[in-house]
Amino acid sequence: MKPIRVLLFYKYVVVENPAEFAAEHLLFCKNLGIKGRIIIASEGINGTLCGTPEQTDTYMNNMRRDERFADIVYKIDEEYEPPFDKMFVRHKKELVTFRLPENVNPNVLSGKRLPPKEFYEAIQREDTIIIDARTDYEYDTGHFRGAIRPDVKSFKEFPEWVRNNLSQYKNRPILAYCTGGIRCETFTGFLLSEGFGDVSQLQGGIVSYGKDPEIRGRLFDGKCYVFDKRISVEINHTDTHTVVGRCHHCGTPTDRFVNCANIWCHYQHHCCKECEIRTQRSCSPKCQESTHREQTIIS
Fold first, then answer.
1. 0.85 cut: is pTM over it?
2. Of the candidates 75, 149, 289, 290, which lies 20 to 30 Å from 191 by C-alpha distance?
3. Which helix (H) or strand (E) holds 258?
4. Range of the structural domain that residue 64 is part of
């Protein structure tokens, strides 16, 4: 058994005095000894954390005693090394930065939730439009076959991108997906508010899809980008795994991610081992020539 558990979770629910709750929750997490990143807003909670099985059990049991969070579904991974070094609990205006119009509230409006098997069946229908509700670099790491690649660098760019690129699909069945499900709660609600009539989302996100014992990640190519030290995780557990990432420098297929060695850049990019050596883990000639570079240790 791997000694570290990673919990991915969220819940849209009204939280009174979110700043005060965030401070209390940070103290609880630090006393428990877990590490990770949690966002608290008046609209709910969104988090990824890690700890021993005993620590994570204590965390989940404590949350279940709070009626606001009693029904949270936790996606659980087991790892050999903790993917976080510190514990952050922050109060923010939104759980995911989308800057929604006031008439869109994920606690009230969102698309139909399809469990993995239904989603798997739906994405194979000819009339379906599949939309990746993540950023372009996440798509480039791995995605469902046939999904539309969003030309966005951050989630808050989606409203403009949707209005400029998807209006012709308002009468088609829309399927959206994201990492753990939370961005789709917001994204599908926005699509409905924009006049899209038939909107569904992958329940539990890509992570849950990969864990489904029957589907086992079928039709997902590449890996799923995650926002911790793991960088990406396997989703397709069949014999049809396909590498979709391409080296930033030479275009060779690769799943390897590196941070630019220029400490003022740290641009994260796909990079094959040969180009990492050749460029000294730099994303550009300018960064390679910079005097503000970390020592590159290539393994």
1. yes
2. 75
3. strand 257-259
4. 4-91
